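Illustration: Chitinase domain-containing protein 1.
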Amino acid sequence: MRVLLGTLWLTLACSSVHATLSKSDAKKAASKTLQEKTQVSGKPAQERGLVVTDLRAEDVVLEHRSYCSAKAHKKHFAGDVLGYITPWNRHGYDVAKIFGGKFTHVAPVWLQLRRHGREMFEVTGLDDVDQGWLRAVRKQAKGLRIVPRLRFEDWTYEDFDSVLDNEDEIEELSRTVVQVAKSQHFDGLVVEVWNQLLVQKHAGLIHLLTHMAEALHQARLLVFLVIPPAVAPGLSLLRIELPEPWSMVD
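Result:
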């Protein structure tokens, strides 16, 4: 009985204990929380002294949401600017609408090109296409070109080997790509396939992509080719020289 009562008393005593932070502890915790500005600013970052070489993390956190609404669409760079938008980061869609004027091209990561057999191609990812967003972005930023990324998805070595030197396959592939781009009201495509093949196959790949580019241009569509840095084992970055036909790439 004494053991039972002792255990019961200990249980009740422990259940009545509550942990609280002292005022000094609360101040320390609050001091570690960096402040953020949530309202827009009347001045651009240059005039607020934010474009510096000795940037502090605290300043980035404080100012990263405080953009100048009057300058949101003004482009300071003379060249072309292409921005990627990923479906898994929905905030990118809002950024494109707010700062669309700072870009010349926007590439939503939407599309995949798949091969299902001889002269059988399909562009998937169309469920991610948001026509309402396309209209809204174009309304906010006149002249902005929408060029979704198209990746060759689930292609085997045999798929490439069957297509690269077959004119009928290449023609059907190009027709499929152009048809989708036109029907979805895109301005062109950003093609990602270069690093999926060994260097020995790049000549055949250039042959395929040249035909695709010609078909897209005939339909008054743009085409961009993504070429990542070429790295060989034990070597630094290699220089890539494209043949003359690729002067047609936008």
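Reading the tokens back as a structure: Helices lie at 2-15, 23-31, 57-63, 91-98, 131-140, 157-164, 167-183, 202-218.
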